[in-house]
């Protein structure tokens, strides 16, 4: 039998001290590595490396304050404007505005003592107050907007403040606008930015030729030339109506504005003929035409007969005007006409007004009447089925249709003013007819508004 292998056990105290023999060498190597390397036992991997401190022998560069200031961000300061424009609100006072905008109150009493101080007592809301100050905060100038054309100007002088009302700078130019009537004239004007007061003027200018209450229709054409004004605040204002053309049912009516040497303003045809006619076209404003001139069946007699005038349906009591200057020839009540007035006019003309409810007070036979004067009131006296005015127009005893008869003009422009007239209206006519080559060389630039291009439709 094989004998087991003999194992010899050595007691620990009998081992050789190898650890203590190599420890001094390891320590020396660690010290050498730390002294010859930039590594740090506690330095994180992502920490920014700090450069070594310069040695005492390193060169030091001195930077001047001006160069240093160029690299520094300046501290922001509040810039106080030399010109301050204030929009006045309702209830603002000059004293309150001085406090709100920290203006020099030492000048306030002197400004309020100036010649036009009354304008500061109630400041107009929406207007501008402009103030100019110097570097020390002293007020040099103050301007208060009074209206489109004027401003109150206050300036500082040696003895205090002086004030004056002066004109504002205003530019002018001619504007031409063309529009096609679709609905009413006023709606058409608004749609094309034509000042609506021009429509009112046109109604008055052509009142002797056009029956605006009944004859205006879709497709009529309106052309206006007017002056547009713009002040130093870029506010715009329509100036006077210089020329107008209204094409009604294919018939053209033109008028131009003329200022004669005495300053009197009136409208004339381009040929210098006065637009004011000897007769108005209608004796009743804005009344409905209920019966025309010519053959018709009489509403009461029920048989055909000549109707020698026109009828205007209107409420009882509606004023009736004399269509021209004349003399009262007849003022009475008749069986058929009821209360009737007949006026006699120069040149063989007569006008008749029937079925009145009453005559104008104090009107008598032989009295002179003026064009547009109220002579009576609409009614239903005589043979009438309803309240209306029967109106006739006679020329040398012959009945004519009041709606189509050619009305005589008043006196034309004096011959002595005709050269001045044609020179003044030339630019206006050139704009009214843009294809004309008569445009004056000194005329202001003109903006053309686009005419309506949409399809015309009837109300």
From TrEMBL:
GO cellular component, one term: cell envelope
Alphabetically ordered keywords of this record: Hydrolase, Metal-binding, Metalloprotease, Protease, Zinc
Domain M23ase beta-sheet core, first and last residues per copy: 306-402
Location, primary (coarse class): other
BP terms from Gene Ontology: proteolysis
Domain Csd3-like second N-terminal: residue ranges: 180-293
Pfam family, one: Peptidase_M23
Compartments, as annotated in UniProt: Cell envelope
Cofactor list: Zn(2+)
Record keyword Repressor present: no
Molecular function per GO: metal ion binding; metalloendopeptidase activity
Name of the molecule in the record: Uncharacterized protein
Lineage: Bacteria, Pseudomonadati, Pseudomonadota, Gammaproteobacteria, Thiotrichales
């Amino acid at each position: 039998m094989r004998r087991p292998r003999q194992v010899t056990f050595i007691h620990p105290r009998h081992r050789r001290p190898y650890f203590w023999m190599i420890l001094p060498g390891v320590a020396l190597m660690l010290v050498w590595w730390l002294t010859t390397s930039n590594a740090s036992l506690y330095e994180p991997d992502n920490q920014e490396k700090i450069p070594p401190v310069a040695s005492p022998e390193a060169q030091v560069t001195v930077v001047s304050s001006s160069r240093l200031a160029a690299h520094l961000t300046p501290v922001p300061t509040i810039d106080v404007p030399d010109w301050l424009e204030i929009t006045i609100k309702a209830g603002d006072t000059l004293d309150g505005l001085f406090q709100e905008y920290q203006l020099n109150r030492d000048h306030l009493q002197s400004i309020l003592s100036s010649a036009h101080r009354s304008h500061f007592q109630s400041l107009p809301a929406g207007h501008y107050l402009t103030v100019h100050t110097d570097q020390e905060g002293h007020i040099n100038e103050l301007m208060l907007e009074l209206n489109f054309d004027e401003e109150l100007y206050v300036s500082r002088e040696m003895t205090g403040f002086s004030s004056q009302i002066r004109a504002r700078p205003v530019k002018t130019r001619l504007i031409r606008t063309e529009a096609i009537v679709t609905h009413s004239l006023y709606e058409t004007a608004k749609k094309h930015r034509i000042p609506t007061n021009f429509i009112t003027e046109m109604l008055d200018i052509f009142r002797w030729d056009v029956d605006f209450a009944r004859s205006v229709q879709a497709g009529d054409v309106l052309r206006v030339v007017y002056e547009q004004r713009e002040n130093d605040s870029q506010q715009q204002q329509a100036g006077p109506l210089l020329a107008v053309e209204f094409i009604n049912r294919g018939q053209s009516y033109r008028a131009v504005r003329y200022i004669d040497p005495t300053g009197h303003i009136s409208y004339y045809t381009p040929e210098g003929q006065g637009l004011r006619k000897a007769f108005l076209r209608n004796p009743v404003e804005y009344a409905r035409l209920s019966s025309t001139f010519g053959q018709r069946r009489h509403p009461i007699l029920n048989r055909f007969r000549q109707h020698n005038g026109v009828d205007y349906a209107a409420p009882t009591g509606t004023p009736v005007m004399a269509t021209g200057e004349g003399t009262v020839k007849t003022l009475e009540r008749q069986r058929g006409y009821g209360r009737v007035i007949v006026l006699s006019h120069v040149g063989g003309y007569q006008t008749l007004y029937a079925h009145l409810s009453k005559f104008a007070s104090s009107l008598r036979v032989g009295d002179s009447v003026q064009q547009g004067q109220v002579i009576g009131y609409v009614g239903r006296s005589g043979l009438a089925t309803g309240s209306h005015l029967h109106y006739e127009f006679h020329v040398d005893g012959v009945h004519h249709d009041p709606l189509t008869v050619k009305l005589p003009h008043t006196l034309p422009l004096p011959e002595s003013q005709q050269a001045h007239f044609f020179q003044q209206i030339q630019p206006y006519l050139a704009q009214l007819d843009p294809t004309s080559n008569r445009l004056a060389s000194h005329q202001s630039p003109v903006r053309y508004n686009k005419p309506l291009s949409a399809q015309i439709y009837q109300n």
